[in-house]
Amino acid sequence: MKARVVYVKGNKESEAQAKQSLKSWLNHDWDAELWEGYTPETLDREKFPYPDMEGGRLESFLENEPHKHPIKTACLFNNLQFAQDVIQYNQPMVFAEHDSICLSEYRGWWADDFCFLAMDDALNAGHALGKYKWRPPFEMGVTTFPRDYPLQYYRKTIYRGHNMTPGTAAYMLTPAGARKLLRAAEKHGLEQSDFIINERNIKLQYITPSIAKFNKRNLNLSHQYESPSNSNTG
Question: Which top CATH class is 2-228?
């Protein structure tokens, strides 16, 4: 199965982690490659020419932290571009961020739309969502997100109350899921990448044991990204 390791070109730490990530996927026999992600400097808004979802998380950055809005939009476009490519290849593919570490080869498992690959790590202490302190019940194979899953969309939009993915560190997307994700962006507007991937839009599943884990160091570039011109000054 194809795997795409997304990184920020020009950021030495992202490039270093991406190489480590790529090696882990290749070592487990995935058809993996590096992919240069969008940044505020390379963002083409005509690629997905939709307005921000009214009342959504992405829109809120314009008012509260406007410097982060193009960063979060670039992250979203990485995922939407990936969805387009899944449809083009007409096969399920893996989206992996630069800080993902692969743990296992592909063993023929299948998901309907979307399968999160690092659930064992995602909501544990030491990670951004560790406050939820939730671990999936140990069931071998692919499982639908349960009703007691704690991470739900909370903004006052049509997505409110629906389970959402615990980030986008590593997931598998099918062509069916990709079409649903792109349809949601077009119909309802642009929303932060891990917010638009919710159960109102696509069926969320995860695999146990996890296929991937997180790098111990989180660069947090979705919040702390600096343009190459700024990072090279001072």
Answer: alpha beta
